[in-house]
Structure formats: structure tokens, C-alpha cells
């Protein structure tokens, strides 16, 4: 399945049906009077977040959506049927933006349903206009027009932990070693061209979602390489795992390059907890590993983990450390939502 994370669509709610002008005419009924029915309401346009989707590819082939028009009213006080609604189904994590890309709504949980465009009301039939003075009204209301919108849908994947690093840092290999995901792995840059997700199962009840995004290079925030387009997919993560390729000469510069791009992008990525790891230690001797890890620790001011996604060394320990931070953040968020406990004497 192809990955698509941003698309522009056009939606229009249905017009309301017009009211009817009609009079009751039956044999042996001397005074019939008006009996025009009301028009039906136009259909609404909704958006709904559903499970089982992780791309917006369906909207690449259809960008225009129009709800049904309400049926006109008829004689004998018969009201028109309402127009059929349209529901746009999107993955959890989809943002809805207006034409100027201002956020309208964030679809953050499965089953969330939001009204995008309300259908026009149906018009009143001439029955509504009957009165003591005008007992035979010959007019009815037309239905109201629907609403037309141009919106952007932008997907930001729901993940707990994000993998960042330069191209060929071993992120895809690490993801494959951590989960059942099977991303493309090759010995050339930009093997990963779209984000990949994997479910990490540490033990019963200990699981989280790990996201791997395409590698960053110097100048990515200005559009170099693949740019920063996919960084939005790790905005919702609780922690970042920063992998540095231990096989390259200057590991400190590699770390600084990615940190600079995260800071230039903004959106809080530079402030997220970062677990820094020297990857591919299976390809190095112990002395070289110690030397490069020490250089990274001096530059970053923090702990450097030593891992090998290919050999599996240190992977579980790093994942458990990430899970502890994810759990801590979720507990803090739950406590913030519940508020302070009520004091009772």
C-alpha cells in the first residue's frame, strides 16, 4: 500500500429541498385548503477517525465529495426525504486544516466524528403560511443552499517513540530487530522513503509503537534530501531514540547535524527526551566503540547507549528505557487530566 500523508479535498453539503405549493382538492370536500409539504434537509458532510487505516491514499483518486440534495415537498402534506450524508473516513492522527492551512480539528482517537459542513434546511410548504387573513397562500420557501469547503487532510502518525538519525544510521534495521515490522533495508542512503510503524512487545502489558522516519541530512529544514516533511509524524511521540552510525568517522558531527535539523523544525521536537545510541557496534572493536561513545557523551552531555540493530546487542535494554519514559509521560498526562484530588477532612 502506498503512503500518502497530505491531500487537499473539496466537500459540499447538500441543498435543502423546496417546499410545495399545493391545495387539497377532493370530491365532496368543499374547503380543501393548502396542503404543501416541506422540503427535505440537505445531507451533511462528516469526518470520522477509524482504526485500520494508516494512509490517506484513498483521497488521491477522489478529491470531491458532495452530500445528497433534499427532496422537494409534495402535496397532501408529504415532506421530502433528507439528503444522504457523506462520511470521510481517515486514520487516527489526521489533522483537518482550512484552505490557509489553519488547524480546524485534530482526529486523535478512534470513533471521533466531526461535522465539517451542515446541509441546507428544507423550505416550508404553503401549509405553514396559512392564517386568518391569507387562507390560501400561494407561496412556499425554497430550500437553503449547502456549504462548500476546501480542506487539507494531514496525517501525523500516532506513535510513542520516534527513531531519528542520518541516512544509513541503521534505523530500519533497529525497527526490524525491535518489532515484527519488515521495512526495506539496504546499504545505500534514503532506503526509507516513508514512515514505518512497528509494535514493540517487551512483555505482557508492556508494549508501545515505534516510528521510523526517513533520514535527515544537513539542510533538511531548507528542503535538502527529503526535507523535514515527515518530521510531523514524530511530533506526538513521548521520546526520541537518536541513532548514530558508529561506522562513520565523525560521530559527533552526525549527532549535531540531526539535532540542528530538529531545532530548526521546531514544534517541540528539540525539547523531547532523547535517548542517544551509538549503533553498529558489531562492526567495531571495543577500543573504537569506547572512544566514539566517549566523544558523543562529551558533546551531548548525556549518556550514550551502545547498540547493534543487526546483532541485537543492547536493543532490549534501550527499548525498556524508552518504555519507562513513555509510561512516565502517560501517567503525568493522566494525572493532569484528572486534576488535583479533592481534599476531605
Written description of the protein model:
With 345 residues, the protein is an alpha/beta fold. The protein folds into 2 domains: 1-155, Distorted Sandwich (Spo0b-associated Gtp-binding Protein, Chain: A); 161-338, P-loop containing nucleotide triphosphate hydrolases (Rossmann fold), CATH 3.40.50. 19% of the residues lie in helices and 23% in strands. Strands 10-11-9-12-13-14 form a 6-stranded mixed β-sheet, with helices on both faces. The chain has a 5-stranded mixed β-sheet with strand order 3-1-8-5-6, with no helix packed on it. The longest helix is centred in the last third of the chain and has 24 residues, at 315-338. The radius of gyration is 30 Å and the shape is rod-shaped.
CATH architecture of the largest domain, please? 3-Layer(aba) Sandwich
The name of the CATH topology of the largest domain is Rossmann fold
Strand content: 15-25%
Specify the number of helices. 5
CATH homologous superfamily designation of the largest domain:
P-loop containing nucleotide triphosphate hydrolases
Please count the beta strands (DSSP E, at least 2 residues each): 14
| Tally of discrete structural domains | 2
Order of helices and strands: EEHEEEEEEEHEEEHEHEH
Helix content: 10-25%
CATH class of the largest domain: Alpha Beta
Please identify the structural class as seen in this structure.
alpha/beta
